[in-house]
Amino acid sequence: MQTNRLNQGGFIDRHKTLRFTFNGQSYFGYQGDTLASALVANDIKIVGRSFKYHRPRGIIGSGAEEPNAIFQIGSGATTEAGMRATQIELYDGLVAKSEKGWPSLSFDIAIINDWFSKLFGAGFYYKTFMYPAKFWKIYEYFLRRMAGLGRAPKQPDPDHYSHQNIHCDILIVGAGPAGLIAGVSAGKSGAKVIIADDQAMFGGSLLASKEIIGGQSSEEWIASQVEILKTLPNVTCLPRSTVFGYYDYNFLTINERCTNHLSEFTAGKIRQKLWRVRAKRVVLAQGAFERPLVFPNNDRPGIMLASAVSNYIHRYGVIPGKNAVLFTNNDSAYQAAIDIKTAGAQSVLIVDSRSEQPSDMVDAAKKCGVELQFDAVIRNVIGNKSIKAVQISAYDASDNTCKDKAEKRDCDLLIYSGGWSPAVHLHSQSGGKNKWDNERHCFVPGKPSQASSSIGSCNGTWILEDCLKEGITCAQEMVTNLGFKAVDMKLPSSKKTKINPMMPLWQVIAKDSSENLPKQFVDYQNDTTVSDIYLAVREGYTGIEHVKRYTALGFGTDQGKLGNINGMAILGQALKKPIEQIGTTTFRPAYTPVTFGVVAGEDIDEMFEPTRKTAIHDFHADRKAPFEIVGQWLRPWYFPEDNEDMLSAVSRECIAARSSLGIMDASTLGKIDVCGKDAVSFLEKIYTHDVAKMAIGQCAYGIMLGEDGMIKDDGVMARLGENHFYLTTTTGGAANVMSWLEQWLQTEWPHLDVYMTSLTDHLSTIALVGPNSRRVLQTLVNTDLSAEFFPFMRTCKSEIAGIAIDLYRVSFSGELAFEVNVNSNFALHLWNLLMKAGKDFGITPYGTETMHVLRAEKGFIIVGQDTDGSVNPLDAGLGWLISKEKDFLGKRSLERADSLRKDRKQLVGLLSVDNKSVIPEGAQLIEKKATSGPTPMYGHVSSSYYSPILGHPIALALVQSGRNRYGEKLLAVSSDAKAIEVSITKPIFYDLKGEQQRVE
Amino acid sequence: MKKYSAFSLFKNALTNNKNWQASWRDASPKSKYDAIIVGGGGHGLATAYYLAKNHGMKNIAVVEKGWIGGGNTARNTTIVRSNYLCKESSLLYEKSLKLWEGLSQDINFNVMFSQRGVYNLGHTLQDMRDIERRVSANQLNGIDAEVVNAQQIKEAIPLINTSATARYPILGASLQRRAGVARHDAIAWGYARAASELGVDIIQQCEVTGIRKNGSQVTGIETTRGYIESKKVGVVVAGHASVLADMAGIRLPLESHPLQAYVSEPLKPVLDTVIMSNAVHGYVSQSDKGELVIGAGIDSYIGYGQRGSFHTIEHCMQAIIALFPNFSRVRMLRQWGGIVDVSPDACPILSKTPVEGLYLNCGWGTGGFKATPGSGWTFAHTIANNQPHELNAPFSLDRFSTGALIDEHGAAAVAH
């Protein structure tokens, strides 16, 4: 029964009844409700249990600040934890569960924590669970189960999330009165405006007010402003959109919830969208949070913020209680008393800590039958699971304490308000500081550190008229500044209310020591109490960051929206320091939590670092080749025929390449085109060999070193023209090398006239490998491929079947070989032509594994496998590549003492002594296992294969003083503790003289 | 100092917790100390503790410009492990891990070191080669390590995506069972309390503005709270090490980068171990409070601002969802950045300097938290004896001129 539902009022549709369940029980609400308003309508008092003490808790707020009504929504794969009932729009079939409380919310066995709470003060866990030492695992098991709130789904998320980038002139955060009028004002000038609000309806605080603005009711005024915004094509309105992060250079992130209000899962729709906004100016108009008051048992179900009461009445037609007491230190809360009395409450008493002063609000309250008591405070609350009564004591402002004598007042609702805290979160995230304002008793935004401006109550401006004025002025200044013509805006008239100043009242202190009183909560989410803060101070945790961390103040999922300011003020009292000397903690994104899914966006599954496939991929897939992931690429690993296993397939492929003809897709190699009049001098600095001496059309194997002299990348490079070069890099290193080169060029040698272009995707590379490669290729090209005209390490342009190609006579296998570069659009076609041409010679496609075997038989290294960032060219046996004449990156490091050590690890070959065992890659090389302490290791196995052409296993390794140890024996030990005896050889196993690749 | 125990909790509860003492004395600077540690993070406080405990130096001070434990100690992902590739690093981190194992009892402060195991995932054949190499090296160095396959990973972590068709399928992992996570704040506070008990002055809100020398001998430090004399000064200030070293005329080969991390809302237990993946750049564990604690890859630009770029967070989120597709509906609560000081070989500097009496402890990059006890232990030895312990001797400053680098890049090599 919706016992608390009013017969009229609110932005709800009483004709559309929605059914929902809470902890398994069915209830009804209306279209337009939030889950929280529906629960209040159904008179649900207890919505949760507190984090540490498991105390029953009720709904306190009506927005992002709500600390108690935090639920698990939905079930199975589409469940979501940590959801605030105040931010969930009700839909039919909604399933909500409270996150704490066992066996039930009304009876939670862990309430014993509350009885023994003195044992569980701030930081208790640092002081115990230490003995016996090995029991920590057991303690931790139980602690972990006690902690935590909701549950993560166990299945993958079926929903979709999206990202959108957008630039704008002005981003307005918050569509309350100030934000709305700023939006209209800026929008009319023609500036590109985005206005985002975290609620479904624009209007902010006006939605819960009965103000008259420019002669219109607040409802009509909002509608008219929204109408204007909607007609302006240069304005984007984003409801249900939370601006949750403010980063550098006015980059802000918005989380738009597109379908959360419709159902748990909406197939085929984007659930949430991340807007990445780059704004020229930002208007911060997020409003303010009402502060709770701190007094004993201030957490009992049935205690609610004044603004929330007005919200429930005006926005949802729900009255949260019949007999209310309102405890306040300021005028704004009077409105809630008036609202609830007008809505039909039987009795309403205002307990005001201030002395009576004439004010419009006092008059209005009296007029509608609200009782008033001044110079008084609430000193205790009676009732555990729901509020039954309060104790009221006289308050002595001279010494900030209340009298012991208390008078009891029955009630079913305690409304409270401790003043307002501007939502300075985004201003703070942007890098701006906040300053304490001693008149308004709150932190207000200090000087902006980026191009932003705070307006309205988030700037500490409380009066509606002033908020509207700030909105207009701010927008006009910004648009003028951006070169638009500001339009004249008339400030709409609104009621001028005289407001009496609030009285700072951070904590109700009784004459007897406050710490013997029942618990006074500062942070509801983490059960941080006043005595926790005092305890922290007593133990020397006096900085606000220490207090925050020791007591968990502000560490809840509301990030201290309700409790932080009270906590800082109470810390100030404990330290006898003014609050401005306490300072604030740092606000971090996200303003309210956002799903991992929306931050990740579309780039998940196969779109996570989108898979790169070569232009010839379909051929490999048709042949059912398994793929190896290399960098972001998929490369065919081997091509099994007739259920061959890997070893058989690789053996067949290797023999084919060595004896007749193999073909390989080498398209993934990084390819960089370098030109410009300083290309030679640039590349001279990059490569170790003499680039300047290269003839046009000549290829060279080149290595690049880091500043430390270690091998960074390698590959064949060619001189295509006087000032034109073509470089290749390793597959995985391509992007890094490109940006590394750009970094040198742009930051160190900007004077050089050099241009680089990545050709990696543009060109595909097909390697034709084997003794018959020339014969087959010659059938397709007119170019004379004979050794005389096209010797080893040359390049030329040619053509096959009308397709332009670049030919390179290079070899990564030690065989006669040609690499054909072709525009990727023709690559598959060309591949098929080559396959056809080679058919008579048994052309055999091979993958990365065979490529590895062939190159290892020749002792060619793979950077990243046979080198690891600690291998210099001399270690790798590549001293012949180092120019003595010129300077290059890393040269100086090669002359350092350590680089000249004779006992450096050097590249060697390994053979297993039994000639049968393939040595595990990664195995460490030792003489014998030490009986105690570390075993000395002389090196490790970097590459290891069975060589089909040789008929025995081979391996490459890096071994200390390796080149002096040929013939010696070591043990190769792998992680399964198996040891294989190996002997050290030269790192070359086949065609020792290198004749085959140069064959005439 | 009154000992912490279940009994002390009980006893104090009886007196309404009124009789707890300050964890550490909030000291004011004296005019002269036998040694001064600049930087009140975990490493600095640990150094002071071991100076007092192991080397009998009692007249020492830790000076901190803000509040202790407020730098990287407060903003890391709390992973503790010792399965490094190089002998030099693995022995140093193993010393640290051994100290972690008895630390709560040693300093009588529960640092909640939870040895729940760390998995370093391999996604490519090269990853697996590197894992094999690292694990066999660990074993030969006497450090616990094993290689596990995808199926074993799935059994231990049921929610992880081990599908062979994943974008970067998990092929296997190294597992160090003794590794785990710890409570980050506790390490600073616990060392501070234990050091203070041994007589160390912990001086907060005291910023060093200059280092005074007489010839090549350090004589003291200028601070915002006056000049303090000491012939031994240990600088342990992470991201700001270059700034402090510059005051003594030393140029350091360090780059400072932003490094970001974030936590989810607290959840019921869903992940009982620690997952690290270098290949996709995501590191995740679950704190005892229930938050998923997630570390991103380093931001590639250089700066002292503790602010990174959002795209780094996006990429990390994508990596985490690749590993745990069910975390997509989990929500990010807080996100922050720290500054890490990275040396050319990605290994720390724990060293004497050309200035006599000035010692440096920096360059920990992304790996400093786990090393806290071992770093303090060896640095204290270095300061007390004016020469490094054999464990930190390889981590000298002059290795960047001799070239005797300790290269940990092995595990992050490029693919071909």
Keywords:
heterodimer, A: 1000 residues, alpha+beta, Ubiquitin-like (UB roll), FAD/NAD(P)-binding domain, 6 domains, seven-stranded mixed beta sheet, six-stranded mixed beta sheet, elongated, B: 416 residues, alpha/beta, eight-stranded mixed beta sheet, 11 helices
Biggest interface reads:
A-B, 126 and 117 residues
Helix vs. strand class of chain A: alpha+beta
Helix content of chain B: 25-40%
Describe the main β-sheet of chain A briefly.
7 strands, mixed
The number of strands of chain A is: 51
Please give the radius of gyration of chain A in angstroms.
Answer: 38 Å
Mean pLDDT of chain B: 94
Low-pLDDT segments, ≥5 res of chain A: none
State the CATH topology of the largest domain in chain A. FAD/NAD(P)-binding domain
Number of helical stretches of at least 4 residues of chain A? 23
In the sheet with the most strands of chain B, the strands line up as 5-6-4-14-15-16-13-17
Helix percent of chain A reads 10-25%
Q: How would the global form of chain A be characterised?
A: elongated
Q: Please indicate the count of domains of chain A.
A: 6
CATH superfamily of the largest domain in chain A, please? FAD/NAD(P)-binding domain
Give the DSSP E fraction of chain B (strand runs of 2 or more residues): 15-25%
Largest sheet of chain B, in brief, is:
8 strands, mixed
